[in-house]
Amino acid sequence: MTDCIFCKIKDQEIPNYKVYEDDKVYAFLDMSQVTQGHTLLIPKRHVSDIFEYDKQLATDLSTRLPKIAQALRTAFPEIEGLNIINNNGEVAYQSVFHSHIHLIPRYGKDDDFSMHFGDHSEQWTQDEMTETAQKIKVQVNGDV
């Protein structure tokens, strides 16, 4: 893809702060630096989002993810936790349409990053939850 900012970054057409590269993935510091060490991990092959992954691409990214996470913790021993975020689609806050995974180090509860998931459990009956799970199972495993 010729107009993709992340493709240009991995191809060194745009200056960036690379932290890792191999034949399948590229990792670099996010310019926003939500917290120190905020890193993006991208596949070198251009795909827009998780819905375009095949099994091999998922394996390529997921096997490199711990390596980057462990490097962050070693580089910054004061890290207390790590958010790993992958947004897919505009409605899910994806702003660059080259799939990427955010690794956001957490240094404490007051490090200016938060995520909030409300409890919506009362909105769904047990039958609705069972139906929802069944719809997904069928797609994952075939007719069960």
TrEMBL record:
Pfam families on file: HIT
Name assigned to this protein: Histidine triad (HIT) nucleotide-binding protein
Organism field: Tetragenococcus muriaticus 3MR10-3
Domain HIT: 5-113
SUPFAM superfamilies cross-referenced by the UniProt entry: HIT-like
A single MF term (Gene Ontology): catalytic activity
InterPro entries registered for this protein in UniProt: HINT, Histidine_triad_CS, Histidine_triad_HIT, HIT-like, HIT-like_sf
Gene Ontology biological-process annotations: nucleotide metabolic process
